[in-house]
User: Fold this.
Amino acid sequence: MEEVLKSLPKGVKDDNLIVGYESKDDAAVYKINEDVSIIETLDFFPSMVEDPYLFGQIAATNSLSDVWAMGGRPIMALNIAAFPDGMKPETIGEVLRGGAEKVIEAGCTLCGGHTIVDEIPKYGLSVTGIVDTKKVLTNNGVKVGDKIIITKPLGVGILLTAHQCKIDTKDDFDDAVKNMTTLNKYAAEILFKYKLNALTDVTGFGLFSHLNEMLDNIASAKLYIDKLPTINENIKKYIEDDYYTGGAIRNEDAIKSEIEFGNCPEWIKQLGYDPQTSGGLLCSIDKNDADKAMDELKSLDLKCAVIGEIIEKKDKAIYLL
Assistant:
């Protein structure tokens, strides 16, 4: 896919385009003037839960996240949706209601959207955000010595797989839903007070692949095995019983050659490959600010954690210790 994107015509050259699709960032950024830039992002996907209202909340939370991942705040959103012909209007309404509530919680304005007919329901948002032109954050500005913070625990894909196989508990599912419907707004507002050198969010490619994108072949990272947060204590059991996803297998194939696992347990490997739906922010933060940021992040009750540090470039991108 990366080669395909590189081959596409780029259109008119515009020096005001700060971030386009040449990079692996979360959204595009266009400079309006020296003080203000706009952020544009689009994301939608099929439902992973049966409840249409929860689906709307999860999809909207995920779509909005990319704006905070670029250092900005969302100001306007448009629905993008596909529903089967004959789906009950009240079901469609619940999807849209769930999404609208999260847009409002984000301090954003919902301005309509576009819907088509499709056999598989899909929903998401096109989101416009604003950001201080001098404070745009990309995913590849890491500095050696930075600490690595993640603002949500891992394991959503594993819990959803267990739920689909009907072997999870109600608490497991509730924990997954809480994780997926918590806006990254609250963590971002804290992190933006400190010196961040790189920022992204952890979604379908899993922790290891998103971290590798941040390193961008200019540095390596040490991850602390005992610091990786999980949504709950049942994650380990589900992994050991092989309840991980096809997405995790694809992620493993894509990134495993870039990782030195050492004595890392197998379940931790699968945790790092696990695709996250509406995952947390992943930041490379100045080491002098990490503890202060964590003191504030603890108030969010999200299992935020310092999970590693940026080191000089070595043979591998990621080392687990």
About this structure: The longest strand covers residues 36-46. The chain has eleven helices and 13 strands.
